[in-house]
Amino acid sequence: MDSQNGSPPWMQEPSVQGIPKEKLDFLQKLVFESKNLSQKELLPFLLALAQRSRNENISFSQEEMNAIINAIKKYSTPEEISKMNQIMRLMAQKK
Fold first, then answer.
1. CA dihedral 34, 57, 89, 92 (to 10 degrees)
2. What is the pLDDT of residue 3?
3. Prediction pTM value
4. For a designed S-S bond to 37, which of 22, 25, 41, 90 qualifies (C-beta 3.0 to 4.6 A apart)?
5. Could you give the residue ranges of the DSSP H alpha helices within the chain?
């Protein structure tokens, strides 16, 4: 977390500055909550997340998703990047 404003460094990347803060906060929760999930736990988590995003009227354009993913990856470990790629594959299968 950044000591200046309490948000993680990826949220301060210029590429995500045009994205509403509530969307960024929603994704930060996703990253935090999914961090220790196993492969078997990921799919139910993503389904619940999709429902929660509908309930909160949060959706992302492809451009927003690309900017966010690239910003997060800059500050991620190889293990975290692998987990993100895994989540992205599961999300793509659900479309």
1. 160
2. 42
3. 0.68
4. 41
5. 21-34, 39-55, 62-74, 78-94
